[in-house]
Design brief:
four-stranded mixed sheet; 10% strand; alpha+beta; 7 helices
Length: 247
């Protein structure tokens, strides 16, 4: 995958690893805010990396930080354009905050655990465990950063639009669709260019992140089955935001 800056972005998606990484990233969505607000979970823009696989554990923290910054910038430009087109004023998510220790960052008075990433509506920020995220980045590649930020940023957009579903799974599948639209539209606009095989690898990885088949769909923290999540993401990727039930 190639960004407009010319830096090559590979998405070497390792199915089982992605399943572990992204499902953990999204677990923050189940945190309850004392005021009834939930930090919503996992998944920002274009970035860089060598044309070879990122799964060799040689990527630096500096590259990771640049990818996060690039992803954030693309997400902000994308959503600013969407809001402008609909005649609305856009406010970016206030900050993206890395943390290293459990409890170092709190959302609505509740400490965030390790191995996690969340969007916190009470304070309007995205927070992620930087050690866990860098380790996943080194094993999975840039796709982890793009999907992680795209999904989390989508939760911030849901808050801005006043979207609040009764069940977690509804919120999560819509965020997957919105993340797909953000990536698909960025490809169509030329902000990102897919390298051969990237889309198939991404599809394979996404298929591995679903909930356990035995988990009830109405359970708090449910994100959807592998089929549901894949369908939601690629519906957004292929059909843009009109497919995401934004009203």
């Amino acid at each position: 995958m190639e960004a407009r800056s010319g830096r090559h972005v590979r998405w070497p998606l390792v199915g089982l690893l992605i399943a572990a990484v992204v499902s953990v990233a999204c677990s923050g969505g189940g945190l309850a805010d004392p005021e009834g607000e939930r930090p919503a979970p996992s998944g920002s823009a274009a970035s860089p990396g060598p044309s070879t696989t990122r799964a060799d554990s040689t990527t630096s923290v500096a590259e990771f930080e640049q990818d996060v910054a690039d992803a954030q910038a693309i997400a902000e430009r994308y959503w600013a354009a969407q809001f402008k087109a609909s005649g609305q004023r856009f406010q970016p998510v206030k900050r993206i905050t890395p943390y290293q220790r459990e409890g170092e960052v709190s959302c609505g008075g509740q400490p965030l655990p390790r191995n996690n990433a969340v969007y916190c509506s009470r304070g309007d920020f995205i927070a992620y465990d930087v050690r866990w995220s860098v380790a996943a980045f080194r094993q999975v590649g840039d796709a982890f950063v793009f999907y992680l930020l795209g999904h989390e940023y989508a939760h911030g957009i849901q808050v801005r639009l006043g979207i609040n579903y009764s069940f977690t799974i509804q919120q999560e599948l819509q965020a997957d669709c919105m993340a797909g639209a953000y990536l698909g539209d960025s490809v169509r606009s030329g902000a990102l260019t897919l390298a051969e095989g990237d889309l198939d690898e991404f599809r394979e990885g996404l298929a591995a992140v679903g909930d356990d088949p035995d988990q009830p769909w109405f359970a708090e923290g449910a994100h959807g089955t592998a089929e549901q999540r894949t369908d939601s993401f690629f519906r957004g990727y292929e059909q843009s935001l009109g497919a995401c039930d934004l009203g």
